[in-house]
Amino acid sequence: MNPEKDFAPLTPNIVRALNDKLYEKRKVAALEIEKLVREFVAQNNTVQIKHVIQTLSQEFALSQHPHSRKGGLIGLAACSIALGKDSGLYLKELIEPVLTCFNDADSRLRYYACEALYNIVKVARGAVLPHFNVLFDGLSKDIVTESNKFDLVGFIPLLRERIYSNNQYARQFIISWILVLESVPDINLLDYLPEILDGLFQILGDNGKEIRKMCEVVLGEFLKEIKKNPSSVKFAEMANILVIHCQTTDDLIQLTAMCWMREFIQLAGRVMLPYSSGILTAVLPCLAYDDRKKSIKEVANVCNQSLMKLVTPEDDEPDELKSAVQRQTEPNPEDSLAKQEGTSSGGPDSSCDSSFSSSISVFPSACTDRAPVTLHLDGIVQVLNCHLSDMAIGMMTRIAVLKWLYHLYIKTPRKMFRHTDSLFPILLQTLSDESDEVVLKDLEVLAEIASSPAGQTDDPGQPDGPDLQINHSELQVPTSSKTSLLNTPSTKGLECSPSTPTMNSYFYKFMINLLQRFSSERKLLEVRGPFIIRQLCLLLNAENIFHSMADILLREEDLKFASTMVHTLNTILLTSTELFQLRNQLKDLKTLESQNLFCCLYRSWCHNPVTTVSLCFLTQNYRHAYDLIQKFGDLEVTVDFLTEVDKLVQLIECPIFTYLRLQLLDVKNNPYLIKALYGLLMLLPQSSAFQLLSHRLQCVPNPELLQTEDSLKAALKSQKCDSPSIDYAELLQHFEKVQNQHLEVRHQRSGRGDHLDRRVVL
């Protein structure tokens, strides 16, 4: 140091003493500096105070000479003592050179730096807190990294206790400590992460941006470490913590927790399965978020898909096959959440949706990652049921719930059928959802229930064993006198064709409930009825659907509904591409199965005269069609009746009846077809339909002009005879009986009693 340099206001004696190798002389110089600074404080001479501090910092504390650095440190401490409560105004200038000395190679110098800092902090007290981070980093890292005596095990309980403090500075202190510990290579903080993770997520919600940012960094470092060393992570002990914070209203906390959940599911795999109900409670609502929370929605979707992939057929194994050891090591579904809630101090669990509190209570407790995992289906189904029942839940969430149910019925059908009775009503109710996509997914679930072998029993009317408990008293069937679905037969009464797949006991229950819903919600039948039935024909066997519905409608007491439903089914049968194969099956009635189906449909189709005729046209029963039309003269001809005849004429002109129109060329072999069409023509008033059919019949050729010797032989071979196994006379009697019932009901409604005069209602 240059002895001739001017260090004013420090005197030459002070400068000499500060550079002395003896501590006592440096101490004397410090006392002189303290006296000098006190005088400047009394004079309010801030310029000289700053000049003294700057000189001690630049010329002494940061000097290349070790004794000068020691003198600068004790001089800065003396300045702080002299300044007293005003030291807070100069803390940055006082602290920075001291902290620089913390990195000195000389351990003795580092000691003097700690001593100086102690004196500065002791005087400044609370004013030092804004500089806490740099102080803490300088002190703690040096202490922890250079000492093997640090008791981490004893420190963690203290950290866990203090981490729930709401004080901003205390939180800053905690985060700084965790950052230091995380940066030490020899300390594996992952082992203790379950102890502090909940508190970290609470600190992440701090109002201070700086603290939130620090906490983000800490959590980010932990997640990186988890990805590097997943085998040493206690995933199960932290699962419930993430579930809780995935449901908070704070976007940053929710997104961070959801990102952690995504990594946990992907890294831990089936270890996360016991926590599925809790994860779904947190994840499913996020799937309906709008673009304002797009990031959370995207991560939640990955979590949902990844969790679904973890469910495998092995989860459907009977519990009794598991060993006693496995049962003892399985997660306990009672106590873990209570533990997490107990450690939280007004934590985010209070913001969880109360409607799902009962579902959350089934979360399993933390367990060792090596323990066998169990899929707790009861909790999962309860969560899915709650979300599907909540009409306020968004469309994407409802679709996700239905995808989950379908997946569970595919992967774990045996166990899922234990829950079918509780799910059945809400699945039927979901058919009224506004979204076509939701309805389609709902139909897929219902179709899987109705066709799964797991739902098959020896006696379809009586479930077999504990796995399938159908409560027949809870069947969704009407009890009023207007509908007779209550009087429908058991599934034994359904004469399914041998060639069709056998449905389980839920198939017939589904058909009963579906028709009941159409009966009670006529708007559903009008708007969605055809869509629902057509989709079911794709998902299930079309013949079984029509056969069962016809069988049920045959016993329907609400005749008006029966007529409407038959008309709907007939329109679908004649026009839908999904029913092409079934139409071909009915077209020729070559097999006993097709004849059986025709008879079954016919008996219910009798609720609607015009649809009955169209069925005969479809099956090429032209003689019987003519016989039916002859009976129309005894029916009450209403406007609705004539409208249906009009629609049938329009339908005859469609491609589906191309074969019928071509058969008009063969007059000699199809006389009853022509008679039947003329019969329809005679029923119609002079309308556009009348003109259309009249023009068609005018195109029928003169049989004399088309007759040749070869055509006569071909005609004899091609002439179609009535099926001998079908009793057409009995069918005609049945038609008359059903139509008389309809007539009686209409007369009772109009107050005409038994007066059955036929009249045209205009």
TrEMBL record:
An example Gene Ontology CC term for this record: PAS complex
Description of how the protein assembles with itself and partners: Forms pentamers. Component of the PI(3,5)P2 regulatory complex/PAS complex, at least composed of PIKFYVE, FIG4 and VAC14. VAC14 nucleates the assembly of the complex and serves as a scaffold by pentamerizing into a star-shaped structure, which can bind a single copy each of PIKFYVE and FIG4 and coordinates their activities. Interacts with NOS1.
Physiological role: Scaffold protein component of the PI(3,5)P2 regulatory complex which regulates both the synthesis and turnover of phosphatidylinositol 3,5-bisphosphate (PtdIns(3,5)P2). Pentamerizes into a star-shaped structure and nucleates the assembly of the complex. The pentamer binds a single copy each of PIKFYVE and FIG4 and coordinates both PIKfyve kinase activity and FIG4 phosphatase activity, being required to maintain normal levels of phosphatidylinositol 3-phosphate (PtdIns(3)P) and phosphatidylinositol 5-phosphate (PtdIns(5)P).
GO biological process per UniProt: phosphatidylinositol biosynthetic process; regulation of postsynaptic neurotransmitter receptor internalization
Official protein name in the record: Protein VAC14 homolog
GO molecular function: identical protein binding
Keyword Endoplasmic reticulum: yes
Major localization class: membrane
Subcellular location: Endosome membrane; Microsome membrane
Disordered as annotated region, ranges: 314-352, 478-497
Superkingdom of the organism of origin: Eukaryota
One of the Pfam families matching this protein, by short name: Vac14_Fab1_bd
Domain Vacuolar protein 14 C-terminal Fig4-binding per the UniProt entry, residue ranges: 522-700
Family: Belongs to the VAC14 family.
